[in-house]
Design brief:
Length: about 140
């Protein structure tokens, strides 16, 4: 991961939050490049992603701080009229995501109207869920 071109943009957050570094690295590269690079014994494969990807503009990493200890991604999707930034909060498929966790992510990002969860699996596939502000926890 240290030799990858995106490492300089993520170095501080990767070292500050090592438990979430894998999902941050995968989602960041999906958003910026629209491709995930797989290193399998001496072979480098490129796989185009269809999801939310495809060369976002003005992409930067964001530290969510102690309330939600991880990095997030802020940027603008291409070919849209909106000037509003879009936020993606990466997480691993194995992580537990709670209502309180989502609330802290929204609060750390200064209450945007929506965020995307970029859920990364062990096989490097990523699924995005759009979460709107003001969601109501269902009764148990």
């Amino acid at each position: 991961m240290n030799a990858h071109p995106s490492t300089p943009a993520l170095t501080l957050l990767l070292s500050k939050y090592p438990k979430t570094s894998g999902s941050l690295f995968l989602v960041y590269n999906d958003v910026v490049h629209g491709e995930i690079k797989f290193l399998i014994p001496d072979l480098l494969f490129l796989r185009p992603e269809i999801a939310l990807a495809q060369s976002w503009k003005d992409v930067e990493s964001v530290d969510l701080g102690e309330q939600c200890p991880r990095g997030a991604i802020k940027g603008r999707r291409p070919n849209t009229d909106s000037n509003e930034p879009v936020y993606v909060v990466p997480c691993a498929l194995a992580e537990t995501v709670s209502y309180a966790w989502l609330q802290s992510a929204f609060k750390s990002l200064s209450e945007p109207s929506e965020i995307y969860l970029g859920i990364a699996a062990d096989d490097s596939s990523i699924v995005y869920y759009k979460i709107s502000s003001g969601i109501v926890k269902p009764p148990v």
